[in-house]
Amino acid sequence: MATSKVRLKSWFDKKISEPVIKILRRGAEPKQLAFSAALGITMGVFPICGVTVLLCGLAIASLGSLCHAPTVMLANFIATPIELSLVVAFLRLGEKITGGPHFPLTSDALKKVLTGQASRDVFLSIGNALLGWLVATPFVIVGLYIIFLPCFKILVRKFSSDSPPTAKTATKERVA
Q: pTM, whole model, 2 decimals?
């Protein structure tokens, strides 16, 4: 049990904490970081698995210097576990909007999708999930931006390369 906690903490530090601290130390603006993190998470919960990296790449290419590419991609990575849990919510929202029938989520439906034997109903449900995501996107991105902006203001101030390291951060750097 203890070794799994140590491995999880090590993985979290390597994949999440250290990249975030590197991003913060490079001097990006809090507004840009908040927007980029909100964009990455919003794109990261797109209801079709395996497409989020492509969507983030397209967003980065389209927005250019308005977003911070490493932050978008890191937020997309962080959103991956949330993606599957929101597919049902987006599906139900899409069904409400279209007034379409309630799609039963069974193991048989998933099996048909994975084996390529999907019926028209499955494709309709995917369309409903996409519609649900599309409608929710502006609310999600604005809500996340509002939440992230004060956080990034604090974090940028704390980890900015201009400010001298505190005893706590200097100790952490020597340990790492």
A: 0.77
